[in-house]
Amino acid sequence: MAHDEILLDLTDEGDAPPAKVAHTPERTCIITREKGARDALIRLALAPDGSVAPDVRARAPGRGAWIGADRATLERAIAKGKLKGALARAFKGAPLTIPADLPDRIEQALARATLDRLGLEARAGTLLTGSDRISDAARKGQVSLLLHADDAAEDGNRKLDQAWRVGLDREGEAVRGLVIPASRSILSMAVGRENVVHIALTAPAAAARVSETLRRWCGFIGRDGGEAPCEAGSQGTSALRRGDGPG
Known about the structure:
Layout: H1 3-10, E1 26-28, E2 35-37, E3 42-46, E4 52-54, E5 65-67, H2 71-79, H3 82-90, H4 102-124, E6 127-129, H5 131-139, E7 145-149, H6 154-168, E8 178-180, H7 184-191, E9 198-201, H8 204-221, H9 235-242
Parallel strand pairs: 7-8
Antiparallel strand pairs: 1-2, 3-4, 3-5, 6-9, 7-9
């Protein structure tokens, strides 16, 4: 047998083990009936008193119901009684009450999940703050995710966005950091540092963890939480600015 034929035999795809395909659990939104990835939806659970409560970390015991709708859609479903009927079916007729401020509670829980995640990444050392440090790391291609406070100056955002594009070798493209729906004071408290206006995640896994929680938060309040930045000025920001942080 010729040498080339031996190589062909060894690399034949039919002899290779089948590639493993990662399974992504799905859930169905009780309002829209659309399916989505479990991690992209929001779980609702029943508190001991029968009130419906957000369970954004999906840890509460017992039966749960899932929603993938944004805040405006949820509020319409509440007003029309659609949510009550959907929850009654999901919880098999168990006695329940829907708090009047359920949309606020969900928004605050999503905000807290994202801010808590940023705090964990800061303690793990996968997060940078400070414009100079971020700019240097970005130009070296060491930044996986770039975030800006929603009260950051546009000029500062543009400079860091450009540094990030240079490091990614994507100059001339519409790549820019995400404007997170929280002010610098909120971000400072979340990561335990002073005057946090910009945040850079340096590890891809850390960036993925933050992106997951941020995408749900932005999606619920009606912002784009995907690769494009969350534009500032939505209804979700005011709740964070009124107090010291989300409850």
